[in-house]
Amino acid sequence: MAGKKKDLTFQIAVTNQEHWEEVLSSKGLILVDIYQAWCGPCKAVVSLFRKIKNELGDDLLQFAVAEADSIDALEKYRGKCEPTFLFFAAGELVAVVRGANAPLLQKTIVDQLEAEKKVLTHGLERNVIKDEALLEEEEETSPLPALATDDELVPSGKSYTVAIIKPDVVAHGKADEIIMKIQEAGFEILANEEKTMTESEARDLYQHRAGEEKFEELIQFMSSGPCHVLIISNTGDEDVIPAWREFIGPTDVEIAKKEKPDSLRAQYGTEVLYNAVHGSSDREQASRELAFFFPNYKLQQQLTEESASSAPERTLALIRPEVLKDRKDEVLQSIRDAGFSIAMQKEIMLTTQQVQEFYKEHVNEDYYPALEQQMTSGPVLALALVKENAVRHWRDLLGPANIAEALSDKPDSLRAQFNPQESAINQLHGSSTLDEAEKEIQFFFPVERTLAAIKPDALEEHKEEIMERIQASGFNISEIKETSLSKEMAEEFYKEHKGKPFYSQLVDYMCRGPCLMMILSKENAVQEWRSLMGPTDPTEAQKTSPNSLRSLFAKSVLENAVHGSSNEDHAAEKIKFLFGDIDLERAVNGTQTDTTPESVAGDITQSEENEEDTAPASDH
Predict the structure, then answer these.
(1) pTM given for the model
(2) Catalytic: 393?
């Protein structure tokens, strides 16, 4: 209670119109936090204001809080969800800051206090303003207005990225200067829209960062005022995304100033959160952000009937046991030769129950007993294939489901080529429709959760780069915490490696400093995270997975930057050890039924089991 009383003394609580007029008549500069009754004043800035007051020690500076609903003069501020700070001098409005933007608030306080002193001591004219946002609000029909109703085009063959000039830079009047530098650097700006995001829209845009410690601060900041959203392309044919990310510089402003002093973030950023500009990490993120900010923009090649029907799709492919055992590599090569990308793959043993669930529409057919026997006779390889018109192209490549028809009518089809003589069941499966493909992919690749860790040296040196790559890869960070492992905790965490030559070194290394522990969720999260990590040995990673985290950030087999669980059971055990009994259904953003392959123990492939047993640091 003592602390609360102190805050009320520090910030004048304005309760009615009469009190409002009295406070505003005070000499000097007064900063008023305008709040709604249902949410209260902005507590996040109190310590900042107190610090500034103590440092400046100036009686001309005062702070107040005022409830919009109880004061007639604040009628237009009622119902606003974002923090709003009004600066008054001699009863006149001289500045407005929206959002709990600490650097901007501090700068505005210092600048406006200095300006008011000049008015009082030298008789200079006071710069009185109107809150332009209130005037513009009446004209706006949406906080993220759509562009013209006619479709705008990203020219055919153009590589593009989405860039955001953030609210603090816009508020400081630097947007035009940055735009000029972007053009001078040879980038082409295809669109430039000023947007003000609501908190809800900011949460949608940054949902992949919801588990981060400063997520709420990020949301408040990005919805604190207008930003400029640009579609940027290159004048040439090269990929614009790496060029743009090189131009804006590292996420951490201090690193940018040291390593890329000419970058935009080095010149205009103040810290990691307030780093001036944003750029899409990869093509997938650029596509998502284009749809989010510019719903009427379309890629030109998608507008023709031919290309509209050739948009990238996913389909499920299954390689059944008999062919998988002897001719797996040949089938995979045929898939790649046909232009398919393999987005996910998993080798599993199916139970009778799972086969019945997957083929429930076929259970009463005469051929079903043979199909069930085939599907449970050994491991099945499930693949999520990606290509333009993937469903149709994969089914065309497969050929007829009936083996006799495939052999007579489509001898070049995969079912004809990969047909064991003694089998009456074809050895390859493909989804029939796009909807069926998505359902079947979800069956074999449901959303999983896995444990991930950024190890001490990598956390200190490469945290921001690693976090960017995690987010760009589509992982949802369900839980996150920074923790320092005691020796006992590290020994328990790596108990499965006890007795191995590297065990004591590994324990000592993990106790060297704090680690960042995360629960990541995504389709096929365990394997996807292991792929993003790359091989244990960074030398091997650089050869076979040059874009993996260990290739880029690991120092040695021991100091290999990141950790990941080897299977779902291992992930569940470590998650419970580090995070306790959390809501695991929430951590995967959905439930998993007992009929999915993930519900059955032992679903990991033999190669993963061997890797766990024989590779010194396969997941540590």
Answers:
(1) 0.43
(2) no
